[in-house]
Amino acid sequence: MKIKIGEKLKELRKEKKITQKDVYDFLKIDQTTYSKYENNKNEPDLDTVKKLADFFNVSTDYLLGRITELENVYFRLSKEATKKGISPEDLKDIMALVEKAKKRDQSTQ
Question: What are the sequence ranges of the domains in the chain?
């Protein structure tokens, strides 16, 4: 079963221990609109998806269900690594570890 964006939004919000109000205030939209996103009654437009990805520090692909949790972890690590001046070689090593974990994950499913 494919996870819809609303389920991802709800999961991410609960992980961060924040309220819907925190999110809809950030987006500058009303509560009903955001609630419909989380309940999969409406889908956010592309600009809103980008804002949500920034807010939750995930990739838009992760929100849209196009990449896995592990790939999203790499995305977050690479963003932080770039900020901290980690070399491209070290990032390649990190990616190799992520790929290894991903393959192990797939083999257990």
Answer: 5-63, 69-107
Give yes or no for residue 5 having a pLDDT over 80.
Answer: yes
Q: Assign a CATH topology to domain 5-63.
A: 434 Repressor (Amino-terminal Domain) (1.10.260)
Residue 95 burial (CB count, 10 A): 14
Other CB atoms within 10 Å distance of the CB of residue 46: 9
Rounded CA gap, 41 and 34, in Å?
10
pLDDT value of position 74: 72
Residue from 57, 54, 50 nearest 77 by CA:
57
Specify whether the CB–CB gap between 53 and 77 falls below 8 A: no
